[in-house]
């Protein structure tokens, strides 16, 4: 169970089997069934991985063939992913929110010859794409449901594929994976993209293993990681496993650490799942932290002046980079306020790691003030995906994303772009040599992010190169910064700002539903978001929130005008990516005329 074990692993399957052999009958994968958490041991998981791998190999699939995986977060996701690789094949994870058109693009582009799908619900948009594509020869259903005639595609049920002689299957897998090297392709992860059709990122085994080794080093050196395995780290998996962030940090990092993975029942039950599971590590996106912060602040506000004073003092101390003192008031904060907040996260969280999108520093400071260690990571699918992460050992500074992880080299180009080199860099975009050549130059991954490195070696990101707003006077404005500050206001749930080649910044705003409901009640109005937005008094209340933000912005950053959106930005209306980043091109296409009108008259 030493770091060197997986730092030198030849492939991801070998890493997993090493851990399974060492941990045997200890519990590994947990899912809630019939109201109780039920687990698979490491040995049971390894048996199913090997049996499924041999079933896939027996279907006539050949090394390098692609297998699409369409499933919610569940034990079978991990088993399928490892089995695909153990069969010498390549996993193609896809989002469960994909439309038929999305599935069709990925099937056509990847040339997948087999598909594993979890349920009838997820099969509904998938099956027409399978039927129209014609390349898929095998479809495996995890849950039993009625399957239509799919032409030349053979259908299989999961239970029949994970039974048999596990020992024989293991011997066959061991022989096969002996030939799988770190440089061999492990998966094609299609970037959801904030614009354009998704591209398949070719992640090799070494890219993910490099990420895992770097992250595990942080756990070994900065946190109390028990490498004996007697007190395993507990992960709660709820971000999509089809996203590179959760795939590496939420699946392969727990495997490397000999940890446990509990699969959440979904966002609507996340709070109760956290209390039940009591995770030690949480891998989260910034949007969730924003929501949690808002809820906590509202609850504290209702508890009266004393609670609000304690919160304000804790935030002031954290903002100034100081620690609580021995003063009685600080002891009250440490003994009363902080434990209540920590208990909402199960009471034993060592670290919450934010990634997938930029984190507003105020959010990080808030959780730090509450006594929770919040680390911001940085990277992209093309880098495994983790490039860097905040480390307590180096010093947590919330406007940075920490130093590069072990095995990663970072430099800043002349124009400020962050360049990355190391084993974590993808092999390229699948069947897209032109885009690959534009992205990887002389071995350096051109991230498209702008930033610099501070005096402690921590990366500071200032903006996305392609998202930077350049106004009509040539001034640069960071849209993420302004949007982040807007959405910290209780009145505003979501925002997008524009202003490229324009005289000033304008915004598209989604009011916060809870705040709008309270405003309607207080002002004797019926709660109807569309009708409220037509009221001058409602607009003035939102304008006050915008003005509060403007007071902390420079002249060129101030939001001069704004319009309301018709509905929230969601994954379902394709205005957010599955990792909860806004799709600017979609919003501009839908609201272009409305935004243009803000510059007239």
TrEMBL record:
Ranges for domain AMP-dependent synthetase/ligase: 19-430
GO MF: ATP binding; long-chain fatty acid-CoA ligase activity
Top-level taxon of the source organism: Bacteria
Cellular compartments per GO CC: membrane
CDD domains found in the cross-reference section: VL_LC_FACS_like (cd05907)
Keyword Ligase: yes
Gene3D superfamilies: 3.30.300.30, N-terminal domain of ligase-like
Keywords in alphabetical order: ATP-binding, Ligase, Nucleotide-binding
Catalytic activity: a long-chain fatty acid + ATP + CoA = a long-chain fatty acyl-CoA + AMP + diphosphate
PANTHER family per UniProt: AMP-BINDING DOMAIN-CONTAINING PROTEIN-RELATED, LONG-CHAIN-FATTY-ACID--COA LIGASE
Name of the protein in its database record: Long-chain fatty acid--CoA ligase
Organism (species): Novosphingobium aerophilum
